Amino acid sequence: MRVGSNPHKDMPIATTEYLHQIVIPVYIPNHEGYFKDSLAILKLCLQSLLSTVHSKTFITVVNNGSSNAVDAHLKYLFQSNQIQELINTENIGKLNAILKGIVGNNIELVTISDADVLFLPNWQMETVNIFAKVPKAGVVGIVPQFKMYESNCGNVLFNNLFNAKIRFTAVKNKLALIRFYDSLGWDRKYNQDYLQCNLALKIDDKHTALIGSGHFVATYKKDIFETVVSFIGFKMGGHSEGYLDRLPLDKDYWRLTTQDNYAYHMGNVLEDWMQIKHDSIVDKPIMPSNFQKQRKINSFCFFLKNRLFVKFISVRWMMKLFLKWKKLPKGMINNFNSIGSK
């Protein structure tokens, strides 16, 4: 039996005060073998995040079937108001956990991060700078990597093929780039030219962004997720890998990355260098919001930019012309591989 009317019926939701959401899915089922150091690394990740974001940041952690020890730590952070949202679920897969964290709010920017990212000061401000200065930016990473323009950047290259502001420039932080690939377990036998040059967009006299973005930590415009699927049938891999890559292309958004390095990938083994000390911050400068939104492009434009053009520019002789046109040093051209259609 119901008596009376719910006082909240038909009440509009107030406009959120938050400008930036961070979503971190966490899966640490035990503390043995591969996961031996994972809780300590998660704590470093969250500590570094909390000390480098402004007060208008909404932090969502999705506990994706983790151990009791992880559950207890996350509950402490939530109950002490250090994180704003804690979602608990059985292991439903990484992407499904991310989707749970994204829905249910209207925050303009959303950063999706792995639980082994060590955030560095100013990452948030530098990210927002790119969104503010490049209206076509839809995804912004904070960790430069090798040849990021090869993945899901056909539209950026198509739109800027004759733009002199896009050209190869010197890598700004070579040591951080080396450290990233060390963290993946790579030996250092990769092409050393990749440590020298990155394809970049000159925004203005003070700002440059790299073309492309990695996956393990990146910030998205929220309107990219206006329509999302409700379930992905893979815990990892399968077609889940490309789902977040496809969505920005549907609106012709560009993938970009900060020129300098603003985070480290820690992996699953705790090392001494990870004990970076962050000074607590009162607040960081909060950038203007209301970034320009894009409409979904038609299927022909999508195919032209992200399929046909990518195949065309991947032809070896065409790629060599492209590298030369974009000012890659002459001695490096023959050693750079062609674009992939990932």
* Beta-strand segment tally: 12
Radius of gyration based on Cα positions: 21 Å
Strand content: 15-25%
Q: How many distinct folded domains?
A: 1
Q: At the third CATH level, what is the topology name?
A: Spore Coat Polysaccharide Biosynthesis Protein SpsA, Chain A
Q: Count of DSSP helices?
A: 9
Query: What is the helix/strand order?
Result: EHEHEHEEHEHEHEEEHEEHH
Mean of pLDDT: 88
Unreliable stretches (pLDDT < 50, length at least 5) are: 235-239, 338-342
Q: How is this fold's topology laid out?
A:
Elements: E1 20-26, H1 38-50, E2 57-64, H2 68-79, E3 85-89, H3 94-102, E4 109-113, E5 117-119, H4 123-133, E6 137-141, H5 154-159, E7 166-170, H6 174-183, E8 197-202, E9 208-211, E10 217-221, H7 240-250, E11 254-258, E12 263-265, H8 299-314, H9 316-325
Parallel strand pairs: 1-2, 1-4, 2-3, 6-11
Antiparallel strand pairs: 4-10, 5-12, 6-10, 7-8, 8-9, 9-11
Structure write-up:
The protein has 342 residues and is an alpha/beta fold. The protein has one domain: Spore Coat Polysaccharide Biosynthesis Protein SpsA, Chain A (Alpha-Beta Complex), CATH 3.90.550. It contains nine helices and twelve strands. The strands form two sheets. It has a ten-stranded mixed β-sheet with strand order 3-2-1-4-10-6-11-9-8-7, sandwiched between helices. A two-stranded antiparallel ribbon has the order 5-12.
